[in-house]
Design a protein that fits this description.
Layout (H helix, E strand, L loop, with lengths): L3 E6 L5 H15 L5 E4 L8 H13 L4 E6 L5 H13 L4 E5 L17 H12 L4 E6 L10 H13 L4 E6 L3 H13 L6 E5 L5 H11 L5 H9 L4 H21 L4 E5 L5 H10 L1 H4 L1
Parallel strand pairs: 1-2, 1-8, 2-3, 3-4, 4-5, 5-6, 6-7, 7-8
Helix pairs in contact: 3-4, 4-5, 9-10
Length: 280
C-alpha cells in the first residue's frame, strides 16, 4: 500500500505571514507531499483566510485539503464552501466538528457532530471529495469515555469518511491500540498518524494541555531541563520524533501527517532523517 505523507498549515493573519507561508510551502512542495491541508478555525473564524490560502495553494499546482468545521456553521454555508471547492477542482476535504466560536455553546449551528457533517458532504457532493476525519489515539478531551470516543470515530467512518488523521501524540502504543480497537469495531479506513515536531517546549505544553495530547513525563522533564536552550530542545525533539516516526512506519502505519506550524525547517529535518524521499 502506498503511504500518504502530508503537511498542515494554518491561514496566515498578516501580509507578512502570507509571504512567509508561500516560501515555506515551496520548500515543502519540493519533497512532493500527497497534499497540504489548511485549518479552519474556531467556528469558522478564519473561513476567509482558509479559502484564500487553499485557492492559492491549489492555483500553484499543489493538491490541497481544506478543513471544514461544522461547529457554528450552517448547512447553507457548508454547501457554499463545498460547491466553491468542487468548482475549482479540489478533491479532498478534512471534516471536523471543531470548536464552538467564543461565547457559543455546543450545538451552535446546524451540525452537532462531525459524522453529521460527513453525511452532509456525501449527500450533497456524492463521491467527489476524499473525506478525511480526525482520530484521537489518547481520546478527545471532551469524550465521556474511551469507548464513547471510539464509537464516535466509527460513526464518522460509517457516515462516509475515506481515511483519518490523528491528533499528534508521542506514545506509539496509544496509536497502535486505537487502530486495533477501531479495527475490532469494523473500521477499515487508513488511520494516518499526526506528527508534531518539537521545537518550542512552552508552546508545545500549551497546545498539549488544550487538546489532550500527552507529553510523556520523561520527554517533558528533559525538555524542561533545557530551559531557554532552543538548540538543545530542537536536537532532542528531532531525536524523539524521528524515533516515533520510525516506530510507526516500521509497524506499517499508512503514512504521516506533519503539523508544520507554518515552518519548514523542523519538518524537513524529520523528512531527511527518515529518508522519506528515498523510501518513496
Amino acid at each position: 500500500m502506498n503511504k500518504t505523507f502530508s503537511f498542515e498549515f494554518f491561514p496566515p493573519k498578516t501580509p507578512e505571514g502570507a509571504d512567509k507561508l508561500r516560501a515555506v510551502r515551496e520548500r515543502l512542495a519540493a519533497v512532493k507531499p500527497a497534499f497540504f491541508s489548511v485549518t479552519f478555525g474556531a467556528g469558522g473564524s478564519t473561513k476567509e483566510g482558509t479559502w484564500n490560502t487553499v485557492l492559492e495553494i491549489h492555483d500553484a499546482g499543489h493538491a490541497v485539503a481544506p478543513h471544514i468545521s461544522c461547529m457554528g456553521t450552517t448547512r447553507a454555508q457548508v454547501a457554499e464552501l463545498l460547491t466553491g471547492y468542487k468548482e475549482r477542482g479540489i478533491r479532498r476535504v478534512v471534516a471536523l466538528r471543531g470548536d464552538a466560536p467564543s461565547g457559543a455553546g455546543v450545538g451552535a449551528g446546524d451540525f452537532s457532530h462531525a459524522n453529521e457533517l460527513v453525511a452532509f458532504i456525501r449527500a450533497t457532493t456524492a463521491d467527489w471529495f476524499h473525506v478525511e476525519v480526525a482520530a484521537y489515539p489518547e481520546f478527545h478531551p471532551q469524550a465521556k469515555s474511551p469507548a464513547d470516543d471510539l464509537a464516535n470515530f466509527v460513526r464518522k467512518v460509517e457516515a462516509g469518511a475515506n481515511s483519518a488523521i490523528t491528533q499528534y501524540f508521542y506514545n506509539a502504543d496509544a496509536y497502535f491500540r486505537f487502530v486495533e480497537h477501531a479495527r475490532a469495531l469494523g473500521s477499515t479506513v487508513p488511520i494516518v498518524p499526526g506528527i508534531m515536531p518539537i521545537t518550542n517546549f512552552t508552546q508545545l505544553a500549551r497546545f498539549s494541555d488544550a487538546c489532550g495530547a500527552e507529553i510523556p513525563r520523561w520527554i517533558r522533564r528533559r525538555l524542561e531541563s533545557f530551559g531557554d536552550d532552543r538548540e538543545s530542545i530542537r536536537a532532542f525533539g528531532l531525536d524523539v520524533v524521528t524515533g516515533l516516526c520510525e516506530q510507526l512506519l516500521a509497524a506499517d502505519a499508512p503514512g504521516l501527517h506533519f503539523y508544520t506550524m507554518n515552518q519548514a525547517d523542523a519538518t524537513l529535518a524529520l523528512w531527511e532523517r527518515l529518508g522519506l524521499s528515498q523510501r518513496r
